[in-house]
Specification:
- The structure is a single chain.
- The protein is of the alpha/beta class and about 240 residues long.
- The protein has a single domain, classed as Metallo-dependent phosphatases (Purple Acid Phosphatase, chain A, domain 2).
- Helix content is about 30%, strand content about 25%.
- It is built from eight helices and twelve strands.
- The protein has a six-stranded mixed beta sheet with strand order 3-2-1-11-12-9. The protein has a six-stranded mixed beta sheet with strand order 4-5-6-10-7-8.
- Helix 1 links the parallel strand 1 and strand 2.
- Helix 7 runs antiparallel to helix 8.
- It is globular and about 50 Å long.
- About 45% of the residues are buried.
Length: about 240
Amino acid sequence: MRIGIFSDTHANVEALSAVLAALKKEGVDKHVCLGDTVGYGANPNECCDRVREVAAFTILGNHDAAVAGRMDYSYYYDAARQALDLHASMLTAENLRWLRSLPYEVREGDVAFVHGSPINIEEFEYIFAPEQAARCLPEWDKLAQVTFIGHSHLCKSFALQPDDVHEVVAQKFELRPGHKYIISVGSVGQPRDYDNRASYTLYDTETRVFEYKRVAYDIDAAAQKIFTAKLERNFGNRLFIGV
């Protein structure tokens, strides 16, 4: 089975539309969303509607949890908090119910899907460096063979052995026996790796081959919506440079 995995759409419907069109061309068998459909951008309802329509399942992200009243976000910085407040007021009752129902984790055989670190999943901890991935080693026996995560907005992969972690520096690779993997799939709607194209990924469960993919989208349209909404202008500016 070929799975199209994506995360962190952040209410950017232009980026999401481009990713879903690319996944259709890829001919994937299933779509999986790793969360944060809302936050930052101008189209939370449209993005929720599209994700609900196509995804076999969606994981709860921290921004989703905040908007759905499932976590305290009073410590978020002002602009992010104001965006979440705005989205909470904009979302339809149906989309709010959907966000409130999302799971923290889904496991299918030897594959796990979460938003942040697979350890303390309700804390939404980041993994974007080997030393952070190494914090999972004490839980080696509980880790899936491969765990797909979002949250960091970075395309990063880590191969774990019981006493070692190293970063996998490749756009496409086969999972090796004797290792476990934590793979961060990047962001659809707000990439932060200085590549402004929307990120999505492919995983073949038969061949155990994983691949990062990028697709261009109408950044100007997405940014202009942010500029005209009651949102921090930097949420739009950063789309152009991918940070």
